[in-house]
Amino acid sequence: MGRELIQKQQQSAVSYTVEQLVAVNPYNPDILPDLENYVNDQVSSQTYSLDANLCLLRLYQFEPERLSTQIVARILVKALMAMPAPDFSLCLFLIPERVGSSHVLINSASFGIADSDVSFEQAIQAYAIHVLSLTYQKVPRSVLAEGINIEGLSLDKFLEHHVANSGWIVEKGQGKGQLIVLPCNEFNHPELKKSTADSIPLEHVTRIFPILG
């Protein structure tokens, strides 16, 4: 118990120190190693700091020779896990084109997120559902299956969970197909529909699942 308390205090101290560095002197290249270590800490501890990661990406712009592709990739993975917040787009905007595509970067980081694959995949699934809700009031089962990368009995259990907890309704479609009725919201009702300009297209989201294996 005492050891756990000390570890928590140490983690809080590290977080506080990094946040202070970002707030006080965000353009000082001397803090770059601290920010890189903090990215690795975020991966291992499943924490997240957008401000610190954006600060690091800005420093890379001023110090391109010190840029670590692996660190950038891990930042993108953490940003993806924050969807539907626009963090991924904010980070991607600060990455030089020469570094490579976001897909390649994320693929290079896949080995580094093994311990958080489950939470990462769940975050991507949640965002896929969010994107579907922007388009559909009733989504075909096949489209949902592709969007969240689940099929068969696993999809049946997934649907049962959301029928019981999220207000979903499963209807019979054409032939043996099924339609999943999503709850009414401001996105799938035209009179309440908001702009979706900042959303990542569903086809981009579904490309992430093969990276997880």
Structure description:
With 213 residues, the chain is mainly alpha-helical. It folds into two domains: 2-115, ARM repeat, domain 1 (Serine Threonine Protein Phosphatase 5, Tetratricopeptide repeat, Alpha Horseshoe); 117-208, Arc Repressor Mutant, subunit A. Helices cover 60% and strands 5% of the residues. The protein has a three-stranded antiparallel sheet with strand order 1-3-2. Strand 2 and strand 3 form a beta hairpin. Helix 2 runs antiparallel to helix 3 and helix 4 (69-80) crosses helix 6 (102-109). The radius of gyration is 20 Å and the shape is elongated. Residues 5-14 have low confidence and may be disordered. Keywords: Cytoplasm, Initiation factor, Protein biosynthesis. Component of the eukaryotic translation initiation factor 3 (eIF-3) complex. Belongs to the eIF-3 subunit K family.
